[in-house]
Design a protein that fits this description.
Layout: H1 2-10, H2 16-66, E1 76-80, E2 89-90, E3 105-113, E4 120-129, E5 135-145
Antiparallel strand pairs: 1-2, 1-3, 3-4, 4-5
């Protein structure tokens, strides 16, 4: 009878190995959850930046389309805010100039004549981040014809 009591007492608790295995499994599950959340946050911020860049690109294309054809147009840069409802503003220093802290994107707009023509302008729009100057996507060309 004493042996049976001792055996039950020996098997009553969890062993150190069982505890380590369960902690390892729990920590791996936690690491997967944290990794998934951080990846989701990163993807959301990239999508937000890309959406803002597309809106800035659309704004500049509409600005070019609405302006009169002129052979004396100067290249320029506009600053765009993604974290507030601040209106676009001209970059300090003109083309490829700096933007104040409230702005996160800069659109650089320049033009050249289509080779062999003086009636077709090729406008180039590129979007970059203000903080690092990294270009977002590829530059877009817009053709403007003198009518």
């Amino acid at each position: 009878m004493r042996r049976l009591k001792d055996r039950r007492r020996a098997q009553a608790g969890t062993t150190l190995v069982e505890l380590l295995v369960s902690l390892t499994i729990a920590s791996m599950a936690l690491a997967l959850i944290v990794g998934a959340l951080s990846t989701g946050l990163l993807n959301a911020s990239i999508a937000k930046r890309n959406t803002a860049a597309q809106a800035a690109m659309q704004y500049e294309m509409e600005t070019i389309g609405a302006s009169a054809f002129s052979s004396s147009s100067a290249p320029y840069s506009d600053c765009f805010a993604t974290e507030s409802q601040t209106s676009p503003a001209a970059a300090l220093g003109g083309f490829q100039g700096s933007c104040i802290a409230a702005y996160t994107l800069r659109a650089d707009v320049s033009w050249a004549w289509l080779p062999g023509s003086t009636a077709v302008q090729v406008w180039t729009i590129s979007i970059a981040t203000v903080s690092s100057g990294t270009q977002i996507g590829q530059p877009v060309n817009v053709y403007k014809v003198k009518r």
